[in-house]
Amino acid sequence: MASKNAPVDIQNVKQWNESLRGATAAGMTVLVDFHAQWCQPCKAIAPRFAQLASQNPHIRFLRVDVDAQQAIAAKYQVTAMPTFYAIKAGKPVDMIRGADPQGIARLVLQHGGPNPPVPPLPEEAEAAKVAGNAFYKDAKYAEAIEEYTKAISIAPNSGALYGNRSIAYLKSAPPNPELALADAQKATEVEPKWGKGYARLGEALQAVEKDEEAVKAFETAVELSQGLAKNEAKQKLEVVKKKLGWH
């Protein structure tokens, strides 16, 4: 049986362009294997590439035969095979040369993005989010909340925006745990498979002293998250379990 997320072999430039545009619209990272039929290292690494594809359905995996698709290979200045590129929003962000299993796993880990993928925000909403993040970093939480609110008015179905505003409410002086909880609940409502939203929900539930519910939220965050986000959720889960005397 074929994998549900098997690498796609690119047959022409039109298919390549459509694949990149589709990935950008879906908020997905693209991982590309530039290979050649005569290249033995390419053949050796191909099963690992396919395995990573089956394990990471939130990433789009493509394969480009450099001899059959010379225009694409030339655009990305591919001179050695295999070469692997990570592409986000149509732009290369990282690459490795050679049949390096650890290297392509690193590309997946570092550039795979959230699971599920998050489509890009409209330009004005993204600008407000960036401004809000800058205020948040400077501990100007009221200003951050104002910018996140502006962004939400433009993109009301973005879980990330509700999650950002939720933690800003908790950091405010004085904090507003009720509004933080409402935003965290909204984040999990609009993006029910986004692990970080449940981590925000757990934090807000702790703030209103609903620790047992927070445990469930953090457990869901652990289940849905990957990498650093998963580790952070695990740490928060252990803290609240310890507080409750659970082992």
UniProtKB/TrEMBL annotation:
Alphabetically ordered keywords of this record: Disulfide bond, TPR repeat
Domain of life: Eukaryota
Gene Ontology biological process: response to stress
UniProt TPR repeat ranges: 125-158, 195-228
InterPro entries per the UniProt record, alphabetical: Thioredoxin-like_sf, Thioredoxin_domain, TPR-like_helical_dom_sf, TPR_rpt
Listed Gene3D superfamilies: Glutaredoxin, Tetratricopeptide repeat domain
UniProt keyword Zinc-finger, yes or no: no
Name of the protein: Thioredoxin h
Top-level taxonomy: Eukaryota, Fungi, Dikarya, Basidiomycota, Agaricomycotina
